[in-house]
Specification:
The complex is a heterodimer. Chain A is α/β, with parallel strands linked by helices. Chain A has nine helices and 28 strands. By secondary structure, chain B is of the alpha/beta class. Chain B starts with 6 loop residues before the first strand and ends in an 11-residue tail after the last strand. The chains are: A alpha/beta, B alpha/beta. Chains A and B meet through strand 14, strand 15 and strand 16 of A and strand 16, strand 17, strand 18 and strand 21 of B.
Chain lengths: 376, 390
């Protein structure tokens, strides 16, 4: 009995468009030193899943660069380990585009799935961040002899989402009784899927055969929403912190939440028995010079801080010069903030240079994004 | 298998470093923490890989657990190779004999088979006791150019301290005519850095001679180098300019850490083309809270700072509580300084807890009175001075 992991690197990239102009969703930098995929990968590794496939479709150069041999996640293995599956010919749709649905992606790697010797698979996107023991979910799945187990959270009153989410109704034992799509709180379907699934391999293979036979494209629309009450579908309700990163604003708010809320920080990054692994860069420790002032900031190694930093997330090698102020901002690796400049609600992509005495400001509900390598 | 290398390095990492007291009671000196995220051995190992030397024998003896654990198979320095790479060389049993390494020369002598395996033209002898960045390939080129039998790297030291070192007396062309180990009255200020390049045949010949000399104390500085000179071999001094620090004492280790806090430190850890690599652990980013105040300090990943940190180096995973004050100190890995505790002029070894309200060290102590707290201590009352492991 073993488990194989599949990570979809680039579903829903259109809603994160600014950050995904030259990278996949999985490779979006997050919280000083991570990429989104690190959370899915670390959850698997920390739950002894060491045969992992990342399904890429396009723009995956920075992802390949990040993963390397997989050594930093302890996934450089002779048996199993990590593989990045690039799109093959069969992934092309009639219109020449690569797949955009989960099921299409899986169809394109059907050969690989038929070779699996594991009894269960974990499928996950990279846009819901949590620190979860997947071993518990898999035990739950096996104990129920489930075909699919959905990891879910309780949706909250008044909650709205831009893209429709899978809303689930389940009985007391977690058996799924109905599934709908919803953009808000639905009292009849109070559980929301975080797009992290455990499937029995057998069910996955049968679904793929059916998808080929009937030309299905969407896992949600064509497979799981067809009379779910007749299947063995279960909901595993996860009662810990889950941070959705499905839009640019959510991305910004997620980073800000980490600087403000110690309980969220601990739930995601602070579990010593389940650390989040990432690619190692050998940056020296961060230097804080005389006259700097820092509060509620998450900071990576390799930075030099001379000015003022408040409620911000600084990636590796950021320099905040004398007299500069950085507030409510996210500065990616190598950002340079010149002397006397002032930033508020800014998301600066990699290697942005902000010269001396500039004032830039976005709003908390509409942070201002500065593209990679730009000079201001 | 064909493994010929032009030059291999032998890194002597077995020393106890007894003048670091509590810091080395359970750890070999090369594994002592430095600069927030490094260990002393990161410097010679990174120098090797940055100098194009990809075959390194690391000779261990004293308290090797932490050191072996840290270096692993050398992956952190890109030294996990199919051909060459890093090999840990502990003392071993041999027929009837089982010998500890009796001196630096004997340690190399016992590993002649390792050297012969790579059939190198040159052997670089290093020690794991110093903080410096050096391109050994330049020293090797110097050695070849001078057609030397042995080249000794030297550095200018203050003349009043020269009697602590091995002093090279040289002619105008840089050739050495006399080598004095710790002379009472030094003739000049050119100290040996304990870094030697040997032509392999010369090394093997003189190691054999030294091994068979019952009066020898089997040491490079005391025996082998003077012996080469007596036999009229070509010895040259290779003058090194740049930051070099012998961190053999508490005071010098503390000072080497403080050197990093200068506005423009002499030892530049930020250079991209000569990186110092180290073993990284999966730690979260550092978090600086609202109540924190940090001035001219270096802080590493995994730290949470809520108190005051002035002119100090804080290593990975340490927590400095609200109202706590750290001044002119070195805090190693995973230390907890509880709210309200004070630390002045101290080196606090890893996994120590300093309880609320306790004062460690003296705010007026200065460089010559550094307080040392041993690894894993639980400090519940005020302390000052060297604190030994219980």
């Amino acid at each position: 009995m073993s488990t194989t992991g599949f990570i979809f690197s680039n579903l829903n990239s259109n809603t994160l468009s600014l950050l995904t102009s030259d990278r996949t969703v999985a490779a979006i930098p997050f919280a000083c030193r991570y990429r989104l995929v690190d959370f899915a990968l670390s959850n698997m590794v920390n739950s002894d899943i060491t045969d992992i496939n990342i399904i890429a479709n396009y723009n995956f150069r920075s992802l390949v660069n990040h993963i390397g041999s997989g050594k930093d996640w302890d996934l450089a293995r002779r048996s199993g380990g990590i593989k990045i599956l690039s799109p093959g010919q069969e992934a092309r749709q009639a219109d020449g585009m690569v797949y955009s649905y989960r099921l299409e992606a899986l169809r394109s790697i059907r050969d690989r799935i038929l070779e699996l010797t594991s009894d269960t698979v974990v499928l996950t996107d990279s846009d819901h961040l949590c620190n979860i023991d997947l071993g518990d979910v898999i035990d739950f799945h096996r104990a129920n002899e489930a075909e699919v187990t959905f990891v879910t959270v309780q949706s909250k009153m008044g909650e709205l989402t831009r893209i429709p989410q899978t809303a689930i109704q389940a009985d007391a034992k977690g058996r799924v009784t109905d599934i709908v799509k919803s953009t808000g709180f639905d009292p009849d379907h109070p559980l929301r899927s975080i797009r992290l699934f455990v499937l029995s391999t057998d069910f996955l293979v049968r679904s793929l055969d059916e998808a080929v036979a009937r030309n299905y494209h969407s896992f949600t629309d064509d497979i799981i929403m067809h009379s779910p009450e007749k299947r063995r579908f279960f909901s595993y309700c996860f009662n810990d912190v889950v941070i959705p990163v499905t839009s640019f604003l959510e991305y910004y708010q997620a980073n800000m939440l980490l600087t403000k809320d110690a309980s969220v920080r601990n739930a995601i990054l602070g579990k010593w028995e389940r650390p989040i692994y990432t690619r190692v860069h050998n940056s020296p420790p961060t230097v804080y010079r005389d006259g700097c002032s820092v509060s509620d900031a998450l900071i990576a190694d390799g930075c030099v801080i001379e000015g003022k930093v408040e409620n911000s997330v600084l990636f590796r090698g950021v320099k905040v010069s004398r007299g500069a102020t950085v507030k409510n901002s996210i500065l990616f690796g190598g950002t340079y903030v010149g002397a006397g400049s002032s930033l508020n609600c800014i998301v600066s992509d990699k290697n942005v240079v902000i010269s001396d005495d500039q004032t830039l400001s976005g709003a908390e509900t509409a942070p201002f994004y500065i593209a990679k390598n730009k000079r201001i | 298998m064909y493994c010929k290398k032009e030059c291999i390095a032998m890194l002597l990492a077995g020393g106890q470093g007894s003048r670091l007291y509590a810091l080395t009671s359970k750890t070999a000196k090369p594994a002592v923490n430095y600069g927030g995220k490094y260990r002393i051995i990161d410097f010679p190992l990174s120098n090797c890989i940055n100098s194009g030397i990809d075959t390194v024998g690391v000779l261990t003896q004293y308290q090797p657990l932490a050191l072996n654990d840290y270096i692993g198979k050398g992956a952190a320095w890109d030294l996990d190779r199919i051909r060459g790479g890093l090999t840990v060389l502990p003392p071993y049993q041999n027929g009837k004999n089982a010998d500890w390494y009796k001196g630096t020369a004997n340690a190399i002598y016992q590993n002649i088979d390792f050297i012969k395996k790579y059939d190198p033209d040159y052997v670089l002898i290093l020690s794991g006791d110093h903080i410096y960045k050096m391109d050994y390939s330049k020293m090797l080129a110097f050695h070849k150019e001078k057609k030397a039998a042995c080249t000794v790297a030297t550095i200018t030291v203050p003349i009043e301290e020269a009697s602590r070192f091995g002093i090279c007396n040289t002619r105008e062309d840089g050739s050495i005519y006399e080598f004095e180990e710790k002379p009472k009255e030094p003739k000049n200020d050119q100290a040996s850095m304990g870094i030697y390049v040997f032509s392999t045949n010369v090394l093997l010949e003189y190691l054999e001679i030294d091994e068979n000399d019952p009066k020898s104390s089997k040491d490079f500085g005391k025996n082998v180098i003077p012996n080469l000179l007596r036999s009229g071999e070509r010895l040259f001094a290779y003058p090194f300019t740049g930051y070099w620090k012998d961190v053999g004492t508490i005071g010098s280790l503390w000072e080497a850490n403080m050197d990093l806090l200068a506005e423009k430190p002499e030892l530049d850890l930020r250079q991209r083309f000569f990186r110092i690599y180290s073993r990284n652990s999966a730690r979260s980013p550092q978090f600086i809270g609202k109540t924190a105040s940090i001035q001219s300090s270096m802080i590493s990943e995994g730290c949470s700072i809520y108190g005051t940190v002035k002119h100090s180096v804080i290593s990975g995973g340490s927590v400095i509580g609200q109202g706590a004050e750290i001044c002119n100190s070195v805090i190693m890995d995973d230390v907890v300084v509880e709210p309200g505790a004070k630390v002045y002029y101290s080196i606090v070894d890893s996994e120590t807890v300093i309880r609320s309200g306790v004062t460690v060290g003296d705010p007026n102590a200065g460089k010559n009175r550094i307080t040392v707290i041993a690894k894993g201590s639980d400090v519940t009352e005020n302390v000052e001075g060297t604190v030994e492991t219980k």
